[in-house]
Design goal:
homodimer; 406 residues; alpha/beta; Carbamate kinase; VC0802-like; 2 domains; eight-stranded mixed β-sheet; six-stranded antiparallel β-sheet
């Protein structure tokens, strides 16, 4: 007997037939003698519909009222899922965030979970009851409903698994696991049986849509074994676990790319204290996320060139912000390139292997791909290249690191 | 300064434009210095959509989970209404049933309100805040969400007005008040400026769609002045008040008709104790609502003929139930007529006027309309006639009692 959390995302509960199929999977786990908590998202499309209603009512709106509206999506699903379970003979009841409660901060629209009360759920597990819990929502200390932000149901599921000390947290989604790279670009991409939290975290923050970044952080901090698997097929998916649980470590486990980047270069920026703050402070204030940053000293030593990336959709806004601070930070020239992509290799094995970066740069050089910017972390190397080389670069790296399937 | 409850039904909040229009009306009351609580229904069509989802998930479903699903309709509206109010500069916040709370019985799907906590609302009135409260929903003692049944938002509004000791409860709807009869049948129908609780109650239970029966009962018991008015025009509507507030009382204030009735006659029923219970008990058990009942003694005095009406949609089921008890209640013959209508006149003035029934019967006789069954109450006379005479009868009575507009 195990205690498990099963999380079904929007496409997995996208219509009533799919809710019934998910319910059947829950029944299988219950019949195997497991204690089960189910976490569900809103039916696919529903959150967008609700968000549109709020936008059309008032462009600038109270996020507390936004949360009242959008939290209804998950509420509908828990009621329907509980009915579907009861209909096939499974004892189940629904729980809204405020009912458990799932306590959160009061940052409406992107609240963080502070804790989940589980005594009542555990008591009811003892009576054979399945808990069907609304993902994405919680309760602030002031008694108002909060939501966790997009993809927050993953976080709800992992937090519930942590609070319940569950043996594992199954995330059912529309892909059947985590791949070495995007199978649409590399047909020989392989599904990984296991991946470490750290790698998953890098992949998630690089834009892999499989798991929300915060949910991976939470799983890592609480040691929750997360199993990413398909809602539609029975195959084993990918287990996200601690590094110790992975016996044979590859040097690189994933090649990923972040499209829709833009590169900004400021030439001849005065090289004195406070300049970086004077540039990146206003960008942060404007909610523009700056990613790769490199700084080169100019020939005369008194000025520097500064290059960094921003999301392509924010480029025009970023240029305006930078123009507005030109009076105080007197650079000579600003150039912008919206045609770049960040390609990264990720693997905890890098820590103990030398020469990973060299292999990467060689593989790209052999294809004639020019590297514009490089950044590294302990388990990741990222390069910025012209976006027309995206597929070529990803395929070359996938092969170079021995990731191609047989 | 007054304290008022403003209730907007489904068509009055049917889309975002209408929500904004309703918000503008709220603003007018706030600017006049009033303390305002707004009660809203689900956007029109939304409750039906949610009910369909539950039906398609499981034909026989847990009413507790049904309530979880359908309560979301009003939750969406309170969020949007609060945003719309804030957007035009009105301080407002939303309240779900569980947040106040609105305490109810635990009869899910048709719960009754037991009480509403209003201390916090009244405190916030003092700060100039408008309360936007979800109609139709509440909280049972076990912490689960309940709904009040169709049309329950009227009841929520009146109950809130009673709890707040509000000066009046404005019900905004898609008609502009209560009419002497159905204007589609009688173009000269008049809008009533005032009507008594008792008359409104009779009209509601006779099928007038303006107010839910329970809301009128509640208003009568707590002396809540209810003002029925249009959401779309500014005209005064109809005030539902105590009899004492109506100076010049008409003999009859309304002519109404209940279509879709069916008449059942059982001939030569043994005239002995327990027979009525043996017939009407099983019908009640089958959830068939029996309305007009008359019993005539037969020639020999040992048997009786029993005639009564049931909703037309229940006629086949009623016949089956009656057949099933024929062994114990040995009547000689059962006849059924699905082509009947109940036409009623209503007015508290009847109490002090004689000859009302006579005037009614004469008016019908003059048009050659045969009366099949008669029932009376203190402020109502109802007759059952062939349904082909519906319009003719309603018009004749409207004229006979001096209700035609000039």
């Amino acid at each position: 007997m195990a205690r498990i959390v099963m999380k079904f995302g929007g496409t997995s509960v996208g219509d009533i037939e799919r809710i019934k199929r998910a319910a059947a999977r829950v029944k299988t786990e219950v019949e195997a003698g497991n204690e089960v908590a189910v976490v569900v998202s809103a039916m696919s499309g529903e959150t967008n519909r609700l968000v549109d209603l709020t936008r059309n009512t008032a462009a600038m709106h109270d996020t507390r009222e936004y949360d009242v509206v959008v939290a209804t999506g998950e509420q509908v699903t828990i009621g329907l899922m509980s009915m579907a379970l009861q209909d096939i003979g499974v004892n189940a009841r629904s729980w809204m965030g405020w009912q458990l409660p799932v306590r959160t901060t009061d940052v409406h629209g992107s609240a963080r979970i502070l804790g989940i009360e589980t005594d009542e759920l555990i008591r009811r597990f003892g009576e054979g009851q399945v808990a069907v819990v609304a993902g994405f929502q919680g309760l602030a200390a002031n008694g108002r409903v909060t939501t966790l932000g997009r993809g927050g149901s993953d976080t709800s599921a992992v937090a519930l698994a942590a609070a319940l000390k569950a043996d594992r947290c199954n995330i059912y989604t529309d892909v059947d696991g985590v791949y070495t790279t995007d199978p649409r670009i590399v047909p020989r991409a392989r599904k990984l049986d296991r991946i470490t939290y750290e790698e998953m975290l890098e992949l998630a923050s690089l834009g892999a849509k499989v798991l929300q970044t915060r949910s991976v952080e939470l799983a890592m901090n609480h040691g929750v074994r997360v199993h990413v698997r398909s809602s539609f097929v029975e195959d084993e998916g990918t287990l996200v676990v601690d590094e110790e649980e992975i016996v044979e470590q590859q040097m690189v486990n994933g090649v990923t790319y972040a499209p829709n980047e833009a590169k900004v270069t400021l030439r001849n920026v005065p090289d004195r204290p406070g300049v970086s703050a004077g540039i990146f402070g206003p960008l942060a204030d404007a909610n523009i996320n700056v990613d790769m940053i490199v700084q080169n000293v100019s020939e005369d030593g008194s000025t520097t060139d500064l290059t960094f990336t921003v999301p392509r959709e924010n480029l025009d806004r970023a240029k305006k912000v930078l123009d507005s601070v030109r009076e105080t930070i007197a650079w000579s020239e600003m150039t912008a390139d919206p045609g770049v992509v960040k390609v990264s290799i990720v693997g905890v094995g890098m820590r103990s292997h030398v020469g990973v970066a060299k292999t990467m740069f060689q593989a790209l050089a052999e294809k004639g791909i020019n590297i514009q910017v490089i950044t590294t972390s302990e388990i990741k190397v990222s390069v910025l290249i012209a976006d027309e080389y995206t597929e070529l670069a990803v395929r070359a790296l996938h092969t170079a690191f021995g990731l191609d399937a047989d």
